[in-house]
Amino acid sequence: MPPDGGERRAVPTDVASAAATLALANRLAGERRLADALDAYDRFIAFDPRFAPAHCNRGLVLERLGRLAEAQASLTTALELSPDSAEAHSNLGNVLRGLGRPAEALASYDRALALKPGLVQALNDRGNALFDLDRLEAAAASYDRAIALAPAFANAYRNRGAALYRMARQAEAIASYEAALALEPQLAPARYELALALLRQGDFERGWRLHEARKAAKPGDYAWLGRARDLPDGQDFRVAEVLVVSEQGFGDTIHFARYVPPLAARCRGVTLCVQAELTRLLAANLPGVRVVDRVDAVPGTCCAMMSLPLALGLGSDPHIAGDGYLAADAGLARAWEARLAPVRRPRVGLAWAGSRRHVLDRQRSIELADLAPLLAADFGWVSLQAEMRAGEAERAAAAGMPSLGPELTDFAETAALIDRLDLVVTVDTSVAHLAGALGKPVWILLPFSPDWRWGLGGIRTPWYASARLFRQPAPGDWATVLAEVGAALTERFA
Questions:
Q1: What is the pLDDT of residue 7?
Q2: How many whole angstroms separate alpha carbon 265 and alpha carbon 282?
Q3: What integer pLDDT is reported at residue 4 of this predicted model?
Q4: Dihedral sign (CA 191, 192, 198, 203)
Q5: What is d(CA 110, CA 86) in angstroms, rounded to the nearest whole number?
Q6: Taking the CB of the first residue and of the last residue of the chain, which one, N or C, has fewer CB atoms within 10 A?
């Protein structure tokens, strides 16, 4: 629709009409009528191409439209016209961060703050760029500066909590999230991230309830809910047909599959919608449950998969079916036995990296080159990587480890291969959950600040009785972890 519901207007021809056009553009931007606002800014700029604030505001609109390269160009023009605009430098920082260029974003925020030290939003956003760069202490300090200037800035407390959480400063992180929520009780990202912190310390009663905030924090991921009633809302499902939909990654689906049988025992029928790569494995292991990889319509009763502990009332003790709740297909396992080279050495499966798309991939994955000392040990190493990164297939082959990725077409195949191994050594990825769910001995290599389900201490986890945890003693210290794994391998198979 054209601005104000009228005809799309022409380029202004005098100062008065230009001022009206700029005022209209600013109003439309404030109302988030972004396409109309962009048109108005373009018409104003056609009249006065040297007015820097119009280029700056146009850049903001383009950023909100997701047109980041164009936003960068518009903000660059604004700065060419007005190099001392702190707001334009700060806005350019946001665009550069959105483009995945946090170091350049940080430089933009620093220029903005040099011009206007009290620019609170720039201090907060500067903290976000430092967070992206894993400079967590500096990020927390930047958030602290923002909070000192604006004590009611809820989002700065929330971001500070995220930095503290990543530093494994658990109590401080929880306090920071709670401060954010005291200021803004419905701040969904803070509620969700507080839930993860509470779950990591084993406070499941509060954690599962707050975990529901993920649906508001990431609404695009839960659009499938539509108008359906989600089970944690209190709907009685004892006689219902229930749709359960998986969330997040493969590992999360495997981990929460343990809750599907108790649900099926309480209702008339369950349809489980999961990733296509998991349908064959889960269908074989969940008798009486219809397992699909897509649904055409959402029924009136449904449940996001990670809401099952709350729906089932397992708040205080969700550690059910901790081992062996999945089994590999015997025929597939025999086929893998025939394919694997016969060895007298123990067969050890290895997964060293997860998906690059994971937000914490830098923390959880290990470079294959760094595993060279481990691979030198005399074991029958078997790669469990479904996908290899550049150069890894050649490096694996040089270490005598076959690359079986093309044959691992789904998790039923991976489960069957794991069934033929003596041990699995893996970073925190889906392989860890699959091996644990199969009851296979699995050693899980964890970053200093791990995912919520592994807690912050100890070598055992109640989620999988067959698992042993190896933890980084300091951020990024995989060398110590790998040395401990090497010693443990020697001891286990002596």
A1: 39
A2: 17
A3: 46
A4: positive
A5: 10
A6: C
For residue 40 the two structure tokens come to 């108005």
Say what the pLDDT of residue 235 is: 62
Exposed / middle / buried, residue 297 (Cβ in 10 Å: 0-12, 13-18, 19+): exposed
**Strands of 246-389, DSSP E:** 269-273, 289-292, 301-304, 347-351, 380-383
- How far, in Å, CA of 38 to CA of 26, rounded? 10
- In angstroms, the CA 153 to CA 156 distance is 6
C-alpha 428/C-alpha 238 separation (Å) is 35
- 159 membership: H or E segment, kind and range: helix 154-166
CA distances from 484 to 22, 444, 489 (A): 65, 12, 9
> Are 406 and 339 within 8 A, CB to CB?
no
Instruction: Tokens for 438, please give them.
Output: 């199969």
Q: What does the DSSP 8-state code read for residue 228?
A: P
For the chain, residues with pLDDT lower than 70 are: 1-8, 227, 229, 233-236, 239, 322
Q: Work out the angle at residue 290's Cα, subtended by the Cα atoms of residues 288 and 294, and round it to the nearest 5 degrees.
A: 170
241, β-bridge pairs: 269
- Structure confidence at residue 5 (pLDDT): 44
The crossing angle, in degrees rounded to 10, of helices 52-64 and 15-30 is 30
Q: What is the pTM of this model?
A: 0.91
pLDDT value, residue 479: 95
The dihedral formed by the CA atoms of 462, 465, 468 and 472, expressed in degrees to the nearest 10: -20
Q: Contact at 8 Å (CB) between 17 and 25?
A: no
Q: How far is Cα 146 from Cα 163, in angstroms, rounded to an integer?
A: 14
Q: Distance between CA 309 and CA 400 in Å, rounded?
A: 43
What is the full DSSP assignment across 335-383? Answer: HHHHHSPP-SSPEEEEE----TTSTTHHHH---GGGGHHHHTSSSEEEE
Q: How far apart are CA 454 and CA 247, in angstroms?
A: 19
Tokens of 296: 């055409």
Structure tokens, 184: 């803004």
| Radius of gyration in angstroms for the set of CA atoms belonging to the chain, rounded to a whole number | 26
Q: Which H or E run includes 252?
A: helix 250-256
The partner residues of 301 in beta bridges, in order of sequence, read 229
Using an 8 Å Cβ cutoff, are 213 and 197 in contact?
no
Report yes or no: 208 and 309 within 8 Å, Cβ to Cβ: yes
Pairing of strands 289-292, 269-273: parallel
